[in-house]
Amino acid sequence: MTDALDRLDLLDLDDDLADEDRMLRDTVRKFADDRLRPHIRQWFEDGTLPARELAQEFGALGVLGMHLHGYGCQGAKPSQYGLVSAEIEAVDSGLRSLVSVQGSLAMYAIYAYGSDEQKQRWLPEMAKGNAIGCFGLTEADSGSDPGSMRTRARRDGSDWILNGSKMWITNGSISDVAVVWARTEEGVRGFLVEQGTPGFTTQDVHHKISLRASITSELIMNDVRLPASAELPGAQGLKGPLGCLTEARFGIVCGVVGSARDALASTLDYAGSRTQFGKPIAGFQLTQRKFAEMAVSLQQMQLTARRLGELKDAGRIKPHQVSFGKFANVHAALAICRESRSILGGSGITTEYPVLRHAVNLETVYTYEGTHEVHTLVLGQELTGLDAFR
Amino acid sequence: MNIVVLVKQVPDTEAQRQLNPDDNTVDRAAVDPVINYIDEFAIEEGLLLKEAHGGEVTILTVGPERATESIRKALSMGADKAIHVTDEALHGSDAIQTAKVIAKALGTIEWDVAVAGSEATDSRSAILPALLAEALGVAQLTQARKVTVDGSTVTIERVTDTGYESVQGSTPAVISVVEKINDPRYPSFKGIMAAKSKPVTTLALSDLGIDAGEAGLANAWTQVVSFENAPPRAAGQTVKDEGNGGGQIADYLASKKLI
Q1: What is the pLDDT of residues B51-62, one digit of tens each?
Q2: Within an 8 Å CB–CB cutoff, is residue A60 touching chain B?
Q3: Is the pTM of this model over 0.90?
Q4: Is a pLDDT exceeding 90 seen at residue B30?
Q5: Alpha carbon distance B60, A184 (integer Å)
Q6: pLDDT tens, residue by residue, A211-242
Q7: A18 near B CB under 8 A
């Protein structure tokens, strides 16, 4: 497999990694190979995973909220977070989702919009993986149009009373703290809802055929009374949650490089050893064309991720550039996984090979954190100056 | 307690390793270098001893310039500082010469225990810790699967073919550990980022008062006289199961006196 990874790096992109970046990447790759990869088939097939234990292992490694500064976080560069996301997603998008939601959605929301007291209380424990967070924006009837959300918070004295529900929430039922976005008379506001708060319940989504190694829940708020201190003071309007999403999408842009690479590398290995008509199927022109197209596509994904990493490290990344990345990379990753499956033939439809598992996971990634269609419109607006959302 | 961990950089065990036909030494350029696998257990044991007894962990490496990569990794796991002995004249040195160099290098610092892996995956001589203890005239506690320190007394469980022996010595002592001893940690991100600012002292042979005439291939006590590539694996014996496959396998195993 290492050999396949080397062959796929046609442009020698690895050569330019800084020593520290390489060491980070190699550490997470080894961790993923030792601790995650041996179990992922079982987790996927069982439709669950030991998220609490894994969060603590990720925490000990330093992955959770690694690009945030202070409060027990590592202060790593965003580009380093990107490299790490790819290594985790090389095992499974569900595992990367666990890490993304914890670090880039829940922790980032508290980091960017929370009071110092909220940060002190949650970030160090979340960085260690002792506390898990989730992020509730999407609702059953409010996806791409978050402005249509029905969850409401009203004041009652100095308290807030929260009512509504959130859907498709990664880490929902295992969270110690949920970042919940709600409409108020003053516009959209964010709240920290702790597990166990009266009126707050969760319900897991079952029967998924994608992201099976990930916990997906519904959050239900029924007259949940919150003190004023539960409000995120720095978040005003939809800009709050949208800022978190831009943050998390960056992890996706880089992460899907991992799932695509893993699919392609395992397929390259397979095609070199699978013999038909007396020679390896890698030796047939039709197969080679597929490999050429997929390998070029993978490296283009990596270049896109690297460029966005540079921009984010420099602190000048713009939301439409993140949309560029998600638009380009998730689509390309999905195409690579589907094409790889065709080379694997019948073997490709089992969990013995990671390829179709990656493909079905990417069907979710294609939709979550801004659908492919929404990112298309973001790019359209950037190019034409015209808003085609409505 | 001041702990030194001896770390060797070796060619990646998982790759096709080669000897250089010109001088029969390891071809270091052919394969990516890594920390000797068993040394990772020595590093972990050093860190555990520090966590239990305080003090500092110093990494000591003898090897070419490129060995700094392995030193950084050891530092990123949590070691405090490092000594890197590197000199062109060391090329081709054998275990006896290397033990002498390490003994001299240890003379430049205060230390209580020196922890090493039980063997290196390239040479597999497994003799260096013993040679080092002999050169230093200190206690030799090798092949440990458990290490306990109480004041200046070090007790180990020494692995044998049939079980273990309890062996005791006083500090300063040289300890070598086997893979059973612990579960090496991953470098933490904090450790990786801190590693680049940790002090690494680079020493040449002249800094240690060693004459170049004592080191290197030409002056080695042992030599690789010749080598051959391993023969390709012979084709196996195929057992065709025609209802009696189990019996055939049992007969085969019995013929080899395995059952």
Answers
A1: 999 999 999 999
A2: yes
A3: no
A4: no
A5: 62
A6: 999 999 999 999 999 999 999 999 999 999 99
A7: no
Residues 183-202 on B with a CB inside 8 Å of A are 186-190, 192-193, 195-196
Residue B17 lies in a domain: yes
Neighbours of B13 (CB within 10 A): 12
Looking at the structure, do residues A191 and A93 belong to the same domain, yes or no?
A: no
Chain A residues with CB-CB distance to B195 below 8 A? 23
* CATH number of the domain to which A150 belongs: 2.40.110.10
Q: What is the CATH number of the domain that holds B208?
A: 3.40.50.620
User: Which pair of structure tokens corresponds to residue A152?
Assistant: 């409401």
Domain membership flag for residue A1: no
Question: How far apart are alpha carbons A327 and A333 in whole angstroms?
Answer: 10
DSSP state of B110: -
- Does the interface ipTM go beyond 0.95? no
> What average pLDDT does range A192-211 have in this prediction?
97
Q: Helix A93-100 and helix A37-46: axis angle, to 10°?
A: 90
Token reading at A204: 């897991």
Considering chain B, what is the average pLDDT of its residues?
93
**Contact between chains at A74 and B189 (C-beta distance less than 8 A):** yes
Confirm whether A389 is domain-assigned.
no
pLDDT (0 to 100) of residue A316 = 96
Range of the domain at A16: 7-128
- Active site (annotated) includes residue A369: yes
Residue A84 within a domain = yes
